Amino acid sequence: MNGKALVTSTLLLVGIFCRAAPAFPQSSPPTSDAATQTEALVDKAAALIDSEGKAAFSQFRIKGSEWFHGDTYLFVYDLKENVLLNPAFPAREGTNVRGQKDTNGKPFHDAMIQTAETKGSGWVDYMFLRPGQTQPSHKWTYVKAVKINGVPGLVGSGFYSE
Where are the alpha helices (DSSP H) in the chain? Predict the structure, then answer.
């Protein structure tokens, strides 16, 4: 193989590997309407929780509302990873999700808590079941720190990228 062929082959392999795995993990979803709408929904819900506390939760449970429709729903945790609200998966309410991992081994609840505690708000991605589905899908979730009747917690919502 001559020098030119070797360089061409090397560049081709580099191009393939660079497309297969980004050099740095993505810390937020690509710009999209879904990302913008999710962030706005969580910010609005956080303001309502900060002013009304747990009383706001009843609004978040109404199916067909701005808070809960299709694949869109809010969830609320305290910082000990107790699920306080999850209208899409109500059986999770009252449970502790510390250390639970997605299908790729990522402790995503822990990542949500860490994001809220250290940054105040931000994005976390992981694999999760869509309501009504049996196989996990890639999900981006935006979380924001809140005070729930004076107790620190977080509110979040996400969207499926697949």
Answer: 3-20, 33-52, 57-60, 108-119
Question: Is residue 68 within 8 Å of residue 60, measured between CB atoms?
Answer: yes
Which CATH superfamily is 29-160 part of? PAS domain (3.30.450.20)
Residue 29 contacts residue 123 (beta carbons within 8 Å): yes
d(CA 7, CA 46): 54
Q: How many residues does the chain have?
A: 162
Element (H, E) at 121: strand 121-129
What's the CA gap between 137 and 104, in Å, rounded? 11
Of 123, 113, 50, 39, residue with least CA distance to 80 = 113
pTM to 2 decimal places: 0.81
Q: Which of 103, 125, 93 minimizes the C-alpha distance to 112?
A: 125
- pLDDT tens, the chain, 162 aa long: 555 544 344 333 333 333 333 333 567 888 889 999 999 999 999 999 999 999 999 999 999 999 999 889 999 999 999 999 999 989 999 999 999 999 999 999 999 999 999 999 999 999 988 878 899 999 999 999 999 999 999 999 999 987
